[in-house]
Design goal:
The N and C termini lie far apart (75 Å). The longest helix has 22 residues, at 121-142. The chain has helices spanning 9-23, 32-39, 43-51, 60-79, 96-113, 121-142. The model has no long low-confidence stretch (mean pLDDT 85). The protein contains 6 helices and no strands.
Length: 156
């Protein structure tokens, strides 16, 4: 017995078509001609993605080009069928909230470990992976040339 794919070709096509229909065409943010210029995908092909059949679902290179130009909202609409969302951002950009969350979690773990007055070898081994995650999260913030600006406090 052949297994059904998690996302059918019809569902995939409908997601792309609906997401494009919201953003491209007369009175929308993008014209087909403008999107052709931005992505390099011929206008006729773009129209077929909106109006066509299952056979006209974009291949991966064209889908990635559409994601790049139309942004996170478009990508989230398409990938929503997989329970995924997308956010704009630079992968090299520091994730301050993630770093803070990891530091607070590690701080709580350390507090629990020193509750008896010292950290034994087992507790130290349990803390090490979390500490390494904190270091990895802080590295982009501490990197030379980082765009992070220190908080300036006013004199009281």
């Amino acid at each position: 017995m052949k297994k059904k794919p998690l996302v059918s070709q019809d569902d995939a096509h409908r997601r792309v078509s609906d997401a494009l229909r919201l953003r491209v065409g007369m009175g929308k943010r993008y014209s087909f001609a403008g999107l052709e210029e931005a992505t390099g995908i011929p206008e006729r092909t773009l129209r077929s993605y909106v109006d066509g059949t299952i056979d006209t679902t974009p291949g991966l290179p064209n889908l990635l080009a559409l994601f790049s130009v139309l942004g996170a909202g478009f990508a989230s609409d398409v990938l929503g069928v997989c329970n995924l969302t997308v956010r704009d951002g630079n992968p090299e950009e520091a994730e301050h909230f993630r770093a803070l969350s990891l530091m607070c979690s590690l701080s709580g773990d350390i507090a629990a470990a020193v509750d008896d007055g010292f950290v034994d070898h087992r507790e130290r081994a349990q803390l090490q992976p979390a500490a390494e995650m904190v270091i990895a999260a802080l590295e982009p913030i501490a990197r030379p040339g980082s765009t992070v600006q220190p908080l300036k406090r006013e004199a009281s």
